[in-house]
Amino acid sequence: MSVSAPASRTPATPYDKWLLKTMNDARVKRYHATSGARRRIVVAHVVTTAVGLAGMVGAYAWASPWPLVALLVALLAWIPLTGFLNSMTRGLLELRKRVLDERQVAERGEVHAKAYRINSWVMTAALLGFYVAWLADTSLADLAVPLAATGLVVWALHRLLPLWIAALRVPDEPEDDEVAEPA
């Protein structure tokens, strides 16, 4: 998945050029060169996201700031993991459209469409769950924490699912063929 700026659109700004260079930094490619490594990074990102969200919900549920420590600890791992995800997708979701080629724009659209479908099913399941709780005469006070947690999870999925899907779809890069020198 190489990145090249198309000639027919608005020219890239200095920020676009810097971001394109950053997202395609060859120094970090070795960390996500294989599909197994990319899957591990995605799983680690999902886990750190879950830990951070649990810290946020825990702070609300127990009316205590201490669960926010989990959020801060998760954030220390989450930030570089997000950088790896952006690097492995070569900035597919972060770069502006003007620096992506037509294939990358189409890929970004496919990733967003798939994430939208998955998140729609998650929201439907959550809505049905709360409807069943309402039918069971569960009070709104008893649903406060589940509502807060569900809202955060749906929001996080909305923001992060496209990145996770794009990272999982990245193909392995072909090995460089070594050219044998004549003897």
Describe the structure.
By secondary structure, the protein is mainly alpha-helical. The protein has one domain (31-169). Helices cover 64% and strands 0% of the residues. The chain contains 5 helices and no strands. The chain has helices at residues 14-23, 35-61, 68-88, 102-135, 144-169.
Cα-atom Rg, whole angstroms?
21 Å
Helix content: 55-70%
Task: Identify low-pLDDT runs.
Answer: none
**Oligomeric status of the shown chains?**
single chain
* Total strand segments: 0
Helix segment tally: 5
Shape: globular
Span from first to last CA? 35 Å
Content of β-strand: under 5%
Largest sheet: none
Number of discrete domains: 1
Element string (H = helix, E = strand): HHHHH
What topology does this entry show?
Blueprint: H1 14-23, H2 35-61, H3 68-88, H4 102-135, H5 144-169
Could you provide a short overview of the structure?
This protein has 183 residues and is an all-alpha fold. It has 5 helices and no strands. The mean pLDDT is 88.
Overview features:
single chain; about 180 residues; 5 helices; mainly alpha
